[in-house]
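Subgroup meeting minutes
Present: P.N., E.W., G.H.
Scribe: E.W.

1. P.N. recapped why we're keeping a running log of single-chain structure predictions: easier to compare across weeks, and new members can see raw inputs and outputs side by side.
2. G.H. added today's entry (216 aa).
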Amino acid sequence: MSSSLTLYTAPTPNGHPIAIFLEELGVPYDVVRMSISDADIGKVHNQVKSPWYLEINPNGRIPAITHNGFNVFETSAILLYLAGQFDKDNKFGFDPIKDPQSYSEVMQWIMFAHGGVGPMKGQAGHFYKFAPERIPYAITRYLNETRRLYSVLETRLSKHEYLAADKYTIADIKTVTWVYHSEGLDIDLEKEFPSLKAWVDRISAREAFKKGMQVP
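Output recorded in log:
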């Protein structure tokens, strides 16, 4: 397949939302699998610190896209860009002029995930599973903060089917991949956060979710 859009990604909660949204949109795209391993720096062409990739994403992280020669990096920024380019009917969002309050709700929950759920869940995973030494303070801090953020989502989703304006939007797509694999932190969603678990189940049943989670 050859298209005007290329996704540079890896199988992580940051990368998967872009593939999921592209699958929802039905937009053709090429995929370049990137290495995020520091051990590959200077050894693997498709490593995120490679000079050619830093021209696309100066932060040296995934995901990034190129669309008709234009580069976009950061998951939330990419979702917003793709929505503007390909979701003209606002199937996965709202018109900021015609429905500014619903649009604001989408933006609020995207920012909540971008600045809260993603970073805190990521740090919890690092210190709980991957850190070379076990640091109890860090583990407790980030697990507690992850559970606190999950409780915010639980409260919202106990009253609403989806995060923003009772509609499946890019706010849900942005957030759900971070919550999807919580068992790795010994967080039992069904017992601790049943409304959050039901939301994950609703979204993960979608065909676009299933396809996007297999990319790359």
